[in-house]
Amino acid sequence: MKICICTLLILLAPSPTHVAAATAKVESIGLFDDPTASAALRDMLEKTGYRVLLPNGSAACEIWFRKSLPIADKPIAEGAAYRFTESELIGVVRIAKVTADFRGQQIKAGSYTMRYELSPNDGNHLGVSVNRDFVLVLPLDVDKDPQATYNLDQLVALSSQASRTLHAAPMALVSPGEISAPSLTKTSEGWQVFSVRLKTKSGENIPFAIVVEGSSPQ
Questions:
Q1: 198 exposed, middle or buried (CB, 10 Å; 0-12, 13-18, 19+)?
Q2: What is 168-213 written as a DSSP string?
Q3: Whole-angstrom distance, CA of residue 54 vs CA of residue 145
Q4: 211 close to 14: Cβ distance less than 8 angstroms
Q5: How far apart (Å, rounded) are the C-alpha atoms in residues 182 and 177?
Q6: Residue 168 contacts residue 8 (beta carbons within 8 Å)
Q7: What is the pTM of this model?
Q8: Which residue has the higher pLDDT, 10 or 67?
Q9: What are the beta bridge partners of residue 161?
Q10: Residues 68-123: pLDDT tens digits?
Q11: Residue 50, class by beta-carbon neighbours within 10 Å (0-12 exposed, 13-18 middle, 19+ buried)?
Q12: What is the C-alpha radius of gyration for the chain, rounded to an integer number of angstroms?
């Protein structure tokens, strides 16, 4: 499992410079209706989701977020950009065709839960990335209980069932800018970043930004 944890470190991205994507857009869509999802999971999600369309008109993915995300007063660890807790359910993502995760691994079409995680921050990992934040995607059939919590090793093991390798399947998070409406932007690295404001249990609407297309330099 040490190998899996170390490989996560290359997945994390520095805060990018955002530039407008020419014809990309974000559409509002209805309920998450995947019959393989547990009732508890479906009940925890917003009634509307987002379809993220790339500049070529194809859909990068569809995403539904949790109705009200619990957040802490401050990030749970040094170097974190977000105030979520380890393994916290962020939402679900559905992809229409085989795609690559941020590590470049092939992920099959289907629906997956998205759970928050941080990279380890010890003497071997300091300075690897500006941001330590990412989500790991898990197949619905191994993540039925949205209230479940996992440690890093458990989360990596479950997410590896999405990548079908020894490694977790990550989607990188980046530091969000000021967001007035859901949008898709392209970074100087060529990544497509979906930005949105999320509702929290505290009543805040916090900015959130996730890489929906693009991979880490190898």
A1: buried
A2: --EEEB------SS-EEEEETTS-EEEEEEEEBTTS-EEEEEEEEE
A3: 32
A4: no
A5: 12
A6: yes
A7: 0.85
A8: 67
A9: none
A10: 999 988 888 887 899 999 999 999 999 999 999 998 999 999 999 999 998 765 44
A11: buried
A12: 16
